[in-house]
Every structure is written in structure tokens, then in C-alpha cells.
Amino acid sequence: MMSWLLPDFGISETCLQNWLRQVHVEDDARPGVTVAESADVRELRKRNRLLEQENEVLRRAAAYFAQAHLPGE
């Protein structure tokens, strides 16, 4: 590797290796998760959390309204 060049740019050899590894993943030359796939997973997890929160609100509202309409009260 061009280790002599890295300090001139302020880049560690490990950082450069990580960049090269990601380029190989993006080019399908190496197995791994692409940047786009990682962003999709992050977005889906965010959406899932939101849906879980909405479901919890609806569950609580349904329980509240069920209690409010019990006969004899």
C-alpha cells in the first residue's frame, strides 16, 4: 500500500482500508451491505418504531373506550 502517502493527506491506513472494502462491496466484488441497503434498513427500523408507537396508542384508546362503555356504569 502507499503508506508513505497517507500522512500527507491526514488519512490513517485503517480508514483507507475501510473505504476500499466498502468500494468492493458496492461493486459486488465482495460480500457485504451496501450503503443503500444500510440506509433502507435504517429507514425501515425507524418506520417500524413509529408503527409500533401508533399501535400502542390505538390499543390504549380502544381499552379506554371499552371501559367507558361498560353496561351498568
Overview of the molecule:
With 73 residues, the protein is mainly α. It has a domain at 33-73. The longest helix is centred in the C-terminal third of the chain and has 34 residues, at 35-68. The protein has helices spanning 6-9, 13-26, 35-68. The model has no long low-confidence stretch (mean pLDDT 88).
Summarize the topology.
Layout: H1 6-9, H2 13-26, H3 35-68
How far apart are the first and last residues' alpha carbons, in Å?
80 Å
- Quick one: overall form? rod-shaped
Query: How would you characterize the largest beta sheet?
Result: none
The percent of residues in helical segments reads over 70%
Structural class: mainly alpha
Radius of gyration: 26 Å
* Structure summary, number of beta strands: 0
pLDDT < 50 stretches? none
Question: What order do the SSEs take from the amino end to the carboxyl end, as H and E?
Answer: HHH
Average pLDDT, rounded to a whole number, is: 88
Proportion of beta-strand residues: under 5%
> How many helical stretches?
3
From the structure above, extract its key features.
about 70 residues, 3 helices, about 70% helix, rod-shaped
Provide a compact summary of the structure.
It is built from three helices and no strands. It has 73 residues and is mainly α. The relative contact order is 0.06.
